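ok so I'm stuck.
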Amino acid sequence: MKQKRNALVAAVLAVLMLLSVATAAFAAESEPTEPALDQVATEPPAEEPSTEEPTTEPTTKTPTQPSTEPTTEKPTQPTTKPAPHTHKFGRWKLAKKATNKKNGRYVRVCSCGKKETKTIARVKSATLKYKQFVYTGSPLTNKVTLKDKAGKTLKQGKAYTVSYKNNVRVGIATVVIKGTGNYKFKTTRSFRIVPMAVALTGVTPSATKATVNWNHVPAQASGYQLQYTTDPAFSKNLKLQTRGGGLATSDVLSGLTEKTTYYVRVRTFKYTGEKYYYAAWSKPLSFTTPAAAPYAISGQLPRRARVASSYFDDAVFVGDSVSLGLSYYEAANDVLGKAQFLTAGSLGSGNALGAVTENSVHPRYNGQKMKVEKGVAACGAKKVYIMLGMNDIGAYGIDKSVANFKTLCQKILKEAPGVKLYVQSVTPRVAQGAKSDNVTLNNTNITAYNRKLASLCAQQGWYFVNVAEVMFDSTGHLIRSYCSDPDGMGMHFAYAGCKAWVDYLYTHTA
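replied:
not stuck anymore, here's the structure
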């Protein structure tokens, strides 16, 4: 084994030696051979000038012109750039104010003269929060919003000011908006001022009419409107009743149908000479008309809620012997507040127009006989409840009696202006039994006279109080138990009749 290893080493060494020899031979062949000494070049002799033209062949001489080859040498001039100018601007200054049509601008200037500008967006919109206000008697103001073209909300006092014109009374109020600060413009906006609303307080219906009441008519109102219908939604069958002027707090709806449900509402309005301004409608009320009463008369005051006795404190009752009986009942029962009486037996419209004499039929006030109109003025009454006719129909007939009644009422109003007239119907007479009714003073003629009085009241604006409708029995005569003299004249009242009379007055007021 050892022998084999030695032989292998020897073989490797032999190979290495052969490679060394080959390398040396290769190197000897590649090196240049030095010339022999006798062949070394000496300095060449000077050449004779040549007469031949210079050759155009390229020469190996280095050209004298500068080389275009890149060089690594640094240039002699400086290589760093000067530092840039830093702008130093002054404050922004307002150059042009913005308007509601054109933008404005700010300007600032650098020390080097360079300018910069900044835009002030123009005003694009001006709006009011509320389109309408209700009259209060005090100046009314609105919320104003201004936005520029960029959508920014401008500040009041900084960008604009606000002032008002006609912002107290009902009508059109004007808002004057003026630019300030960075803005220069003027524009206006407007809103409405409408009358105050009122509220319904009640409705008293009869078969074909209804009295509607509300709380008050406020300042700045020229009148009111009543709207009524059978439709609770107020979308069809609408009827409108308009009244102008005055401070009325009630009105009567006419032409209604019995046993029908209606809905009514009220609103006030103001007329400025150019335009109507309406308040909001009140909350509606509903009511149902009753069946027609057999002795109801068109135009009579409808039934309503019972009033207190103090309602009659400023009333005076004018009448004949029938009303005289009512004064006795009042004195005994104290049921009509502080009401006064101007009554006389056999008093009628005809003889009341005559002169006051020792034998004339006139009422007395404080023991002194005087004309009806003088007595009304003397007692200071505000309400006049008058019942006359029983002593006129037989003497003058129906038409002449109504004419005399009208003349007397006009004298009362002239002597005591401002009083309210409550015309009471003449009451019926009891059935006369074996006796026939008076040829002229009978219940048929009494009813005809009462209808004429109701028509007169409608024309003159007086109140017709149809006391008679609760006095008839089933035969069309005065209820016997109501009469104090059924076997005599058959027209005066017992206490039961007076109570029915007073109860009717309490529930038929205006």
